[in-house]
Amino acid sequence: MVVQESIVVMSMIQVYNFHDENNEHLGLLNVQAGDDAAHAFWRDLDSQMPLFASHADFLRRVAYLHKAHW
User: Fold this and answer.
1) Burial of 70 (0-12, 13-18, 19+ CB in 10 A)
2) What's the pTM value of the predicted model, to 2 decimals?
């Protein structure tokens, strides 16, 4: 799953996936890291990456939804 094509927003109760297949809309966003995310970066994800709590389950479901590698 290429994260740059999708933004997954996680909250305490709900998870939202904003998918942009051709990077036509999300690519226009000027996303900048704040002080709390100074070292944030885009990367490819897979099922072997250690993630916090149920975040892996959220991303697995998004990958399944978009028929992406997980």
Assistant:
1) middle
2) 0.57
